[in-house]
From TrEMBL:
Pathway: Cell wall biogenesis; peptidoglycan biosynthesis. This is UDP-N-acetylglucosamine--N-acetylmuramyl-(pentapeptide) pyrophosphoryl-undecaprenol N-acetylglucosamine transferase. InterPro entries: GlcNAc_MurG, Glyco_trans_28_C, GlycoTrans_28_N. It is found in: Cell membrane. Residues 182-311 form the Glycosyl transferase family 28 C-terminal domain. Residues 2-133 form the Glycosyltransferase family 28 N-terminal domain. UDP-N-acetyl-alpha-D-glucosamine binds at T9, G10, G11, N119, R160, S188, Q280. GO terms for molecular function: glycosyltransferase activity. Its main location: membrane. It comes from Thermus aquaticus (strain ATCC BAA-2747 / Y51MC23). It catalyses: di-trans,octa-cis-undecaprenyl diphospho-N-acetyl-alpha-D-muramoyl-L-alanyl-D-glutamyl-meso-2,6-diaminopimeloyl-D-alanyl-D-alanine + UDP-N-acetyl-alpha-D-glucosamine = di-trans,octa-cis-undecaprenyl diphospho-[N-acetyl-alpha-D-glucosaminyl-(1->4)]-N-acetyl-alpha-D-muramoyl-L-alanyl-D-glutamyl-meso-2,6-diaminopimeloyl-D-alanyl-D-alanine + UDP + H(+). Its EC number is 2.4.1.227. Cell wall formation. Catalyzes the transfer of a GlcNAc subunit on undecaprenyl-pyrophosphoryl-MurNAc-pentapeptide (lipid intermediate I) to form undecaprenyl-pyrophosphoryl-MurNAc-(pentapeptide)GlcNAc (lipid intermediate II). The keyword Cell division applies.
């Protein structure tokens, strides 16, 4: 039995689900421990994966909040009860506040703990858990202190490994297969900032654009839609990325991993570090350093788009080198070493 834990947001949940499915395919029993109120509370009941949801107080980077501390304590007690019933032989935590209680209780009880970091910067929960962990799986290479590096392996970020022929994907989405297509993503929930600022910059270019605005913003930004500029609340990522020639997006780890799998060049608009502790900026810098993406500059966006579309080869090759293909299998292999 392997216990997987992590969540709150899709960035922590989806990699763990991918590993869970790989382990189930290999014949292992799995159990998922998530947080009440997290994205997993909506998605896990739709899967065949046995699971439990517990309180999970958010670990604040800047201040202690008594209410969250109380939830964390309740979560630790609830996790202890779940682990006693499930009796896992190994634990994988993908981080986030949801991934802390079960991992902490399990490691304190001597159960082998492995961690998976999606971003190019270690999150707070994983930094706290690291001293107790047997290993740390990274999505992309990042500089680490010697003590951390000794336990770390670059195994990638598990994604849905589905690709479609580009012209077929464009046609299925209602676009001319012969024309370049820009894909705009602001994360699974959409980005109000990108929804407001990018259309006035992109529409005058005369290019085909597919813009995922987020389900909550679909009605508000539906007026943007015309023959060349299509608006969607939510998109099937493999289909959209197979169709696209250039991605304009936030710099979430999951989005970038999917772009790398599809060898899709990107212009990135990372969140301000004050909003996420600098994780997205670190991701964007890592992909830019690798030659796979550029940090977008609104004042020069037209020139950046034209330059990449004219010569996408080097960006596609760099993205291919960062591709996470096979990541779920590699993480499952590592977990099997501890079973």
């Amino acid at each position: 039995m392997v216990l997987l834990t992590g969540g709150g947001t899709g960035g922590h949940l989806f990699p763990a689900l991918a590993v869970a499915e790989e382990l189930r395919r290999r014949g292992h029993r799995v159990f998922y421990l998530g947080a009440q109120g997290g994205l997993e509370a909506r998605l896990l009941p739709k899967t065949p994966i046995p699971h439990a949801l517990i309180p999970a107080g958010k670990l604040d980077r800047s201040a202690f909040r008594p209410a969250e501390g109380y939830k964390l304590l309740k979560g630790l007690l609830a996790a202890r009860k779940v682990l006693k019933e499930v009796a896992p032989r190994a634990i994988l935590s993908t981080g986030g506040y949801a991934g802390f209680p079960g991992a902490f209780v399990g490691a304190m009880g001597g159960i082998p703990l492995l961690l998976h970091e999606q971003n190019a910067k270690l999150g707070l929960a994983l930094r706290l858990l690291f001293p107790m962990a047997r290993g740390l799986a990274l999505s992309v290479p990042i500089p680490l202190a010697p003590g951390l590096a000794a336990k770390a392996r670059v195994l990638g970020y598990p994604v849905r490994e589905v690709r479609y022929p580009k012209e077929e994907a464009k046609a299925r989405l209602g676009f001319d297969p012969k024309k370049p297509l820009l894909l705009v993503l602001g994360g699974s929930q959409g980005s109000l900032e990108l929804n407001e600022t990018l259309p006035p910059l992109l529409k005058p270019l005369g290019l085909n654009v597919l813009h995922q605005v987020g389900e909550r913003w679909r009605e508000r930004f539906g007026h943007l839609e015309d023959e060349a500029y299509k608006v969607a609340g939510f998109l099937d990522a493999p289909l959209a990325m197979s169709a696209a020639d250039l991605l304009l997006s936030r710099a979430g780890a999951g989005t970038l991993a999917e772009a790398a799998f599809h060898h899709l060049p990107a212009l990135l608009f990372p969140l301000a570090p004050s909003l996420d502790g600098g994780a997205q900026l670190a991701n964007a810098m890592a992909y830019a350093k690798a030659g796979a993406a550029e940090l977008a500059r609104r004042e020069a966006l037209k020139e950046q788009i034209e330059r990449i579309l004219e010569n996408p080869g080097p960006y596609r090759e760099a993205m291919a080198r960062l591709s996470p293909e096979g990541a779920a299998g590699r993480i499952a292999d590592w977990l099997e070493e501890h079973l």
